[in-house]
Amino acid sequence: MQRYSAFALARQALNHHEGWERAWRAPDLKDRYEVIVVGAGGHGLATAYYLAKNHGITNVAVIEKGWLGGGNTGRNTTIIRSNYLQEESAAIYELSRGLYEDLSQRLNFNIMFSPRGVLMLCQTEHELRAMKRTAHANRLAGVETEMVDPARVKQLCPIMNVDGPRYPVLGGLWQPRGGTARHDAVAWGYARAASDLGVDIVQNCEVQGIDVSNGKVMGVRTSKGAVRCEKLAVVVAGHSTVLADMAGFRLPIESVALQALVSEPIKPVMDIVVMANTVHGYMSQSDKGELVIGGGADGYNNYTQRGSFQHVEETVRALVETFPIISRLKMLRQWGGIVDMTGDRSPIISKTPVEGIFVNCGWGTGGFKAIPGSGWATASLIAKGEDKVAAPFSLERFREGRMIDESVAAAVAH
Ligand SMILES: Cc1cc2nc3c(=O)[nH]c(=O)nc-3n(C[C@H](O)[C@H](O)[C@H](O)COP(=O)(O)OP(=O)(O)OC[C@H]3O[C@@H](n4cnc5c(N)ncnc54)[C@H](O)[C@@H]3O)c2cc1C
Question: CA-CA-CA-CA torsion for 80, 83, 84, 88, nearest 10 degrees?
Fold first, then answer.
């Protein structure tokens, strides 16, 4: 792989930038692979990368029906944090946040990780109590967060109106090393590094059927022909139940659209991420100057990968008391992704009733932050048959009633 560096940039500049290699190969599908990963979102690509990097398994294909990173990974609002309530969640989200810290160096690709800090507002007494509980749980789990008072909130984000008549800000849960990263770059960085290690990434190739014989996976049927494999990882977010149907089992997943929008670009006005769970909205400012705004998921199941007008109004109405500045802004564009929700708002990283098939799904509204940790744990589960971080997130928990309730941490879409 051609390394990216200041020196390489200078050398290519002398050559009118005509000597750059393609970032990843565009191979044809082979007849057989040791592992096939369906879905080239962040989680699928990270899984393939860590299979090769950590476990030396390189006979791997990532099969994607569209273009890599074109699903939720390329549509999300890029919030990275690990201030979840339960120990199991703290373990995987903090592993992930830690991996994000030097991911650009490890992948030799600038993912623009920006640990600018994430603030979760408390705008009711109930929320204040819930966040204090989370702060204590975080301390026990070794996740660095702290409760802050309204004066500190105002200091962290001066454009905020903390004295709102309906929802005054009573405090906040502050994670100083939370932040954002460039979503496409995370997908591209993993794709480039995985391809370099020998992983085949095959785009515009839809998996249309899964062959199972005597309870074991044999391969997949795709729009580019049939391929055999020993192991299959289904990492397709909102389409997880569609793929599970093909293999003959069911998943406790509901698919709904989640939307976001951005304003016209303006001068820098906020340099942290703010989430307002009570009113249901969150906001940060992109490097281009746009305010990136997200709200809640649709209240009904659907596969609509697009925005709707009523959602813009709902979300802006929710945020305008706390951020009066947005009343004067034009909204530039909006979009939607299809997210995969579980009942306890925690993910599934698991073996399935079919031998050789693994699933990674259920990240719902908050899986971007988890991409490195999830890929790490899923690769280990596939390679070794078990993984300590992934274990609590198995499908068994739904049978045993051992839920990992994160409905407070995931109360607002993020
Ligand atoms: C509007 C919005 C805002 C969000 N904000 C945040 C946030 O701020 N922070 C955060 O942590 N998370 C956020 N999320 C959630 C996050 O985006 C997802 O949890 C995460 O991107 C899921 O990644 P993935 O790789 O599992 O899925 P995806 O990126 O959706 O990738 C799955 C891929 O599978 C492919 N696929 C599906 N079916 C097939 C098939 N039959 N054959 C081949 N390929 C197939 C799809 O084309 C897709 O590319 C947000 C999501 C949305 C929609």
Answer: 90
